[in-house]
Amino acid sequence: MTDFLIADLHIQHARILEFGRSCMASNVDEHDEVLIKNWNSVVKSTDTVFVLGDVCFQGVENVLKLKRCYGKKILIGGNHDVKKLLSPEFSEVFDRIEAVYEYRKNKWLLSHYPVHPYIIDNERYTANIHGHMHQGFIRSSVVQNQLEDHRYMSVSADRINFTPISVKDVEANLKERWRQTGKLLFPPYEPIDYNAM
User: Fold this and answer.
1) In what helix (H) or strand (E) does residue 165 lie, and over which residues does it extend?
2) 139 backbone φψ class: left, alpha, beta (φ>0; ψ -120 to 50)
3) d(C-alpha 6, C-alpha 22), whole Å
4) Distance (Å, rounded) from C-alpha 4 to C-alpha 163?
């Protein structure tokens, strides 16, 4: 059983292709098929996928395409999901729907929008894994030369090859970013083993 993360699927969002989203699709139906194919290439039926918002655009029935995707699905609602969250279609697809989610194994806060740095600075969380930012990154407010703040990671589909990314790969990414930039900023990232407590 593996946990995965992905955000910003934008199923049936025709204009998303105009915004530079490149997944080798010429139309929105091809775009959706690429997402489903990529999802099922890494996720098994026993896995869990945290979807960090912006599932679909337009009609709520578009979310039903995700029924073809493997695994248990937990949604952290995004700005394009707000009016649809209470629909029977969303309940049919998602095992759970949350505003934010504490991923306690690693002391991560999962959200659609990046959270304010204060929420991470209080040492309750080591990182904010989020969506919403298809491009760009969160800059550090601590260092004058404005390095990327390694405590944030966007798992927007655009950034992860339109394929859910495993928690193990997110951990490796955060550790590498710590190695490259963190020595100036914060103590090293170490996941917490709650079984040892």
Assistant:
1) strand 165-166
2) beta
3) 16
4) 9
Per-residue pLDDT of 43-71, as tens digits, reads: 999 999 999 988 887 777 888 999 999 99
User: Considering the domain 3-196, what is its CATH architecture?
Assistant: 4-Layer Sandwich (3.60)
- Measured CA to CA, the distance from residue 164 to residue 155 in angstroms comes to 8
Q: Which one-letter amino acid corresponds to residue 155?
A: V
Tell me the domain boundaries of the chain: 3-196
User: Phi-psi category of 193—alpha, beta or left, where left has phi over 0 and alpha has psi -120 to 50?
Assistant: beta
Select from 14, 9, 2 the least CA-distant residue to 155. Answer: 9
Nearest CA to 69 among 51, 88, 91?
51
Question: φ and ψ at 80, to 5 degrees?
Answer: -85, -5
Closest to 173 measured CA to CA, from 154, 147, 193, 145: 154
Q: Which residue has the tokens 């304010």?
A: 116
> What is the helix (H) or strand (E) element at residue 72, kind and residue range?
strand 72-76
Cα separation, 83 vs 74, whole angstroms: 17
| Mean predicted lDDT score pLDDT of the chain | 81
90-136 per-position pLDDT tens digit: 899 999 999 999 998 888 999 998 888 777 776 788 889 999 765 55
pLDDT digit string, tens, across residues 22-45: 666 778 888 899 999 999 999 999
